[in-house]
């Protein structure tokens, strides 16, 4: 009989997902950046292209996947801060590579990599009500 070994991170992820299940029933999960995750863009406008054709709605889950310490996810407050890669007023930060964020505010979210923003590692996620 096969056995499954659950790590603390896996158990935590399952518990958090279950806690949010009623509010995310119709939600979709996205790995930010697609198959390569949150990584240095190979082409200009990689993250802009990744968002094209997607309709993000309230409650969608965004998985920021990268090697711990390699990147620094920061949500900045405005398009101006995003354009300038200005993270002085950032709110969401993560360097672990295991961030799962359920976006419930119907608004435009601006994310950058504090280390590589000037090289195009930034994304705009526009959340709609439904």
Give a structural overview.
Residues 1-8 and 18-24 have low confidence and may be disordered. With 130 residues, the protein is an alpha/beta fold. The strands form 2 sheets. Strands 2-8-7-4-5 form a 5-stranded mixed β-sheet. A 3-stranded mixed β-sheet has the order 1-3-6, with no helix packed on it. The longest helix has 13 residues, at 8-20. The protein has 3 helices and 8 strands.
Which keywords apply here?
130 residues; alpha/beta; 5-stranded mixed β-sheet; 3-stranded mixed β-sheet; 3 helices; 8 strands; 26% strand; globular; disordered N terminus
Topology:
Layout: H1 8-20, E1 29-31, H2 46-51, E2 56-57, E3 61-65, E4 73-76, H3 79-84, E5 93-94, E6 98-102, E7 108-113, E8 122-128
Parallel strand pairs: 1-3, 2-8
Antiparallel strand pairs: 3-6, 4-5, 4-7, 7-8
Walk across the major sheet and give the strand order.
Answer: 2-8-7-4-5
Strand % is 25-35%
Mean pLDDT: 85
- Gross geometry: globular
Q: Please report the distance between the alpha carbons of the first and last residues.
A: 44 Å
- Helical segment tally? 3
